[in-house]
Amino acid sequence: MSGSALANLLLAAWETPDRIRFVALLYGLGGLLAFPVGLTLARLVSRDRNWETALAAAFVSLLTTTLAFTGGLFALQYRSYYAEWHAPALTLTWAFEFAFTMMTALYQFVVLGVRLYFPLGFAALVGASIWFARQRR
Predict the structure, then answer these.
(1) What angle do CA 134, 67, 102 make, to 5 degrees?
(2) 109: part of which helix (H) or strand (E)?
(3) How many CB atoms lie within 10 A of CB 16?
(4) Using an 8 Å Cβ cutoff, are 133 and 53 in contact?
């Protein structure tokens, strides 16, 4: 996932090299954390089923967990940037600011960040799903 984000950002001549590395690291870490969780979820869903079910389970599980982990890391980084201007912790105002900052971050990730997975990340997802389904036979 890191390679896909890195390739997209370099081709777009995006920002500075430090920021490109940071975003690539964020995507790589999200994919790294999501992979074992996605495989475990796929194993649970596809237990004692045929090859096609295992392929679909791996595809959906890996896709969902990768987006969730990477989006969560993106939201935490986004929140840490804006925390300087938020109210003191554990107040009602802080809770609203926290919730709306996280929702805004997730929205921005869906709108702007998911495109960094194409085409390399999608190809890796398909390859990992096929690998998983073949292991199950």
Answers:
(1) 160
(2) none
(3) 8
(4) no
